Amino acid sequence: MLEIGGVRVDTLAQTYKTPLFVYDEDQLRSRLQEYATFFQSDTMETGVLYASKAFSCKAMLRLVKEYGLSLDVVSGGELYTAKAVDFDMSKVYFHGNNKSKEELEMAINYGVGTIIVDNLMEAQMLHEMSQSIDHTIHVLLRVNPGIDAHTHKYIVTGHVDSKFGISLLQEKELVDVIRTFDQDEHLSFDGLHAHIGSQIFDKNAFIAEIEKMFGFIKHLEDTYDIHLNTLDLGGGFAATYTSEDHPIPLQEVCSTIVSHCEKQNQELGLSIQKILIEPGRSVVAEAGSTIYTVGFMKQTPNKKYVFVDGGMADNIRPALYQAKYNADIANKMDAPKDTVYTVAGKACESGDILIEGIALPKCEPGDLLVTYTTGAYGYAMASHYNKNPLPGVVFCRQGKAREVIRRESYEHLIDLETDE
């Protein structure tokens, strides 16, 4: 029987029901510690921001807090969760391309340390709002470096027509935004933020981003006498989903980024004091798995289907990104994988396919199918489609399980409905 964090999968299924998200807590802790250890420089301050959009709950943020990392939030809800665990707000960075006025007010009232401004309209709104505050807010400006990191078109964020940030080609608008900040005594403009995509397997993509950004910072200094002290290089660090994936080893990618930033800073005669990165997927993805119970099977003229009690409502990525996953039958780990199945969910959608064409042991109703590397953007993107309750989430460590998010009940599904 397969175990996760020393706990048997059948025990987890019986105790917490399925579908169920399960995290190996020691694996989470190890990855947080690795980032804290490896992303260090002798000449610049460094910061690791956990991108909480990958997976956010109070238990996860408490781990981030324990290991001394900063936090990247992208909504009022993520910000509220950080506040609920008493996260140090000076270490919270608030992202987003369309923050509402209410969310910005929330960030100001909470004392968020840094707001990453996405566009000119947001800069103007923040400038107006800052006139009524009595403290200083640090600001970064998100720019679009025009670098394609060769990932799926929906998760590439650095090309010139991306919805995120201001393109480096729109130089006048960039300078106007920076001047707006410089004239505001309550806003401290620190520098720039860029992000070039997700699931980046080639470290040369990061090198290209660094060279592009340092070159532009040098241009701002020489042409406009604008001096920056911080550069946030975003995330994009990959995880292993199947044998086709070969992420850059974490120590290597951290060392590459740090050393190249140090080199650019020195060669261009710049005074960048702080560099930041924003890992999310690479922290939580591989630590998480999803347990399903097998229901019916079906043979069509060309396929053998095995149906599970979840699907696109708890993992939208295969339908959205054509993402690939690996899986096992937890109660048949030693059985030969001699049957090729298409693993399908229970949603009323033809596209509700979790895995297309995977070799598994002969499946039977009641078997426990476990998909791996679902720790990022699984629960975070889950929905109530077909009026299904959200799964629970469990952390396992050293043979013990603890429930960190309760499984929803049917009562939860209608609790906010008002028609009596």
TrEMBL record:
Cofactor(s) required, per the database record: pyridoxal 5'-phosphate
Q: Look at the named UniProt entry and state the broad enzyme category this protein falls under.
A: lyase
The biological pathway it contributes to is: Amino-acid biosynthesis; L-lysine biosynthesis via DAP pathway; L-lysine from DL-2,6-diaminopimelate: step 1/1
Query: Residue limits of the Orn/DAP/Arg decarboxylase 2 C-terminal domain?
Result: 21-375
Name all Orn/DAP/Arg decarboxylase 2 N-terminal domain ranges. 27-285
Q: Where pyridoxal 5'-phosphate is bound, by residue?
A: 236, 278-281, 377
Give GO BP annotations, semicolon-separated.
lysine biosynthetic process via diaminopimelate
Q: Kindly identify the residues recorded as the active site.
A: 348
> What GO molecular function annotation could you give as one example from this UniProt entry?
diaminopimelate decarboxylase activity
Q: Which domain of life is it from?
A: Bacteria
Residues bound to substrate: 281, 317, 321, 349, 377
Question: Which keywords has UniProt assigned to this entry?
Answer: Amino-acid biosynthesis, Decarboxylase, Lyase, Lysine biosynthesis, Pyridoxal phosphate
Q: Which residues form a coiled coil?
A: none
Q: Which PANTHER family match?
A: DIAMINOPIMELATE DECARBOXYLASE, GROUP IV DECARBOXYLASE
Family per record:
Belongs to the Orn/Lys/Arg decarboxylase class-II family. LysA subfamily.
Q: How does it assemble?
A: Homodimer.
Q: What is the name listed in the Swiss-Prot or TrEMBL entry for this protein?
A: Diaminopimelate decarboxylase
